[in-house]
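Per-residue structure
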Amino acid sequence: MDQPVEMYWKIKLNETKEQLEANNFEVTIADGISDAKTIVLEKLI
């Protein structure tokens, strides 16, 4: 298995995303810091 720790966290993040969506939260996952910055500036502010 290539990069098992990274794969573990991707799985956990996806599970958390699904749980939040099941509770009517809007969820956006960024691929990196620059994407997160763009999401915050465009959607939240």
Summary: The chain has one domain: 4-44. Residues 4-44 form one domain.
